[in-house]
């Protein structure tokens, strides 16, 4: 039975300003998100997050329609969970790309009668929180900060609106380190541990072969818009550097770059092959190697020392791709 769709703009959590600027566990720029740094309590939570009982209220943080499609099916129709989609992704850049991804997700939510919470696009706060992490490769500390920010706001909304569980679509993609994603969720849930709020981050394996295959099938059936980079300006920049080295056309945002048209999912095998483990591994190998330019971090630091004003504009416009892709 399809429920009534409710579209609303989220009232932001009261203590959000405090959450927004706290850099959790990022002492001296050291990478913290490794499994050996997960403490005993967090390990316990990783192992013990059983599937919520049927009809449980679950807040599903969603990054996009393709990542949420199969997950929504599973949660809604097989597990009989009472889900609400929570769209909070200030990382997505530029704004046009953000709007496209959001609209795709709203359409899918409406089709399935799932409540959709359209949260803020506070990209300025996102850019501020990422200062110092701009040249981090994907899966590095910038991504921990990005997941933390999104999970903290998701947890705050869940706590204020009577959800017992929250989880995220971020863990479905092969491009993501699922432990890194889950750790951010667990950390966000732990913020409520001593406040008497019974909130849990639900850890589940959404990346089985069957789920991955279904994810692509849903994306093809729905003809979802096919994004070509993780989301932030830095991932857009790095994807384009890598593509140039591979001789692949640069990323298209909303289909208007290079006049090549909007890309949609249209072939399960071909779409899945684009995200094969081989491709993913090749990208990360190059990214961790700074795409063959070992001096890249040093060049950036020197440029920043020379003139921080050069970079100041990057935070001001959510639409200015060039200013944000340094
Ligand atoms: S690469 Fe993706 S997860 Fe990492 S900071 Fe950018 S948007 Fe966030």
Helix and strand string, N-terminal first? EHHEHEHEHHEHEHHHHHHH
CATH fold-level topology of the largest domain: Rossmann fold
The mean pLDDT is: 78
Largest sheet: 6 strands, parallel
Q: Can you identify the CATH superfamily of the largest domain?
A: HUPs
Q: Number of helical segments? A: 14
Q: How many individual domains?
A: 2
Per the principal axes of the C-alpha atoms, what is the gross shape?
Answer: globular
Low-confidence stretches: 1-34, 256-260
In total, how many beta strands? 6
How would you characterize this protein structure?
The protein is of the alpha/beta class and 326 residues long. The chain folds into 2 domains: 4-206, HUPs (Rossmann fold, 3-Layer(aba) Sandwich), CATH 3.40.50; 222-310, no CATH class. It is built from 14 helices and 6 strands. A 6-stranded parallel sheet has the order 1-4-3-2-5-6, sandwiched between helices. Helix 6 (141-160) packs across helix 7. It is globular. The structure holds iron/sulfur cluster. Iron/sulfur cluster binds next to helix 6 and helix 9.
Short structural description:
One of its GO terms (molecular function) is 4 iron, 4 sulfur cluster binding. With 326 residues, the chain is α/β, with parallel strands linked by helices.
List keywords for this structure.
6 strands, 14 helices, 2 domains, alpha/beta, 6-stranded parallel β-sheet, binds iron/sulfur cluster
SSE topology sketch:
Layout: E1 7-9, H1 16-21, H2 40-47, E2 57-61, H3 65-78, E3 82-87, H4 95-111, E4 116-118, H5 123-129, H6 141-160, E5 165-168, H7 178-190, E6 200-201, H8 209-222, H9 233-246, H10 268-274, H11 277-288, H12 296-306, H13 309-312, H14 321-324
Helix pairs in contact: 3-4, 3-8, 6-7, 8-10
The protein binds iron/sulfur cluster.
Keywords: 4Fe-4S, Disulfide bond, Iron, Iron-sulfur, Metal-binding, Oxidoreductase, Queuosine biosynthesis, Redox-active center, tRNA processing
Protein name: Epoxyqueuosine reductase
Pfam family, one: QueH
